[in-house]
User: Fold DNA polymerase IV from Leptobacterium flavescens.
Amino acid sequence: MESGFSLRKIIHVDMDAFYASVEQMDNPELKGKPLAVGGGEIRGVVSAASYEARKFGVRSAMSGALAKKRCPDLIFVPPRFDRYREISKKVRAIFYDYTDLVEPLSLDEAYLDVTENKKGNPSATLIAREIRQRILEEVGLTASAGISVNKFIAKVASDYNKPNGQKTVNPEEVPEFLESLEIRKFYGVGKVTAEKMFKLGIFTGQDLKAKSLEFLEAQFGKSGVFYYDVVRGIHRSEVKPNRAPKSVAAERTFSDNLTSEVFMMEKLEKIASELARRLERHQISGKTITLKIKYSDFTLQTRSKTLNYFISDKSLILETARELLYQEKMQNSVRLLGISLANLNTGGDEDKESPDEEKTVSVQLKFDF
Assistant:
């Protein structure tokens, strides 16, 4: 492994099938049964699936109809986000007993930097095991964890021994771990990118590592630099507490497809109200409004407009959404509408790596994990 920065001890904690597990915990009759949060046999999209449902191929973002087809005994339950937030706060409270360097990614996962921690424990592996045990005893849910020298490897590792497991990738193990990794398991490589890599003969980390920086930049642009670095164990992004959101959104899936813009405006009024409440709660405003439209054939379209000033007021959001709605004729009947606000006034910087940073050098790694 190459390194141009101080090694850190990073833990990525990922709750196991979080929404579905909360539902099974609160309702013992659901334990051991295939369960989908959200969706529905006719309408809607699955937000989360229990491990029992996943065995049948049920996944999040799948239509309820397809999920039911794959698993005829599937049980649908409506999401309870207030309850999920309540449980998430309890889990995070455990994290903060060990370090203040906690970066939540969502309600069910977070990065922890335990290089220096409140327990004075030099072993990140033991800390992760203790955190998972406390989550089980104090909250009643299982969690998985990945432990390594940076966020990228820790996140990939957390998926290895799911559910209710953990994996440590020690510094000296990093090169072999990344070289043997299937390219689809690289965090940040989606389906489309994976297909492109396959066509270029890149199936594993070893194949990726064999490609030059110039080749990867030519094929993937700025992302090529990222791929070149991470396969060598280089990922400089620090754990950032109080992570600033990139956008705030609200959306609705409808029980009946909408065919008239008049009906759509009625729905957008309610969506704009919800979005405005969320913005007010977090004291956030933004400049870029995006209208999300999902048609009855599941094709997705977005229309955006960036203003010269920050907004958070419902009337201004709705006015812009209306303009975007009538921007062009609908292609089909509509099953989902959403509004998001980005280009926020949070002042949060994205993860950046300076091109002027010191060039990487090969070092002998000795680091107790």
The domain at 18-79 is CATH 3.40.1170.60 (MutS, DNA mismatch repair protein, domain I). The chain has 13 helices and 14 strands.
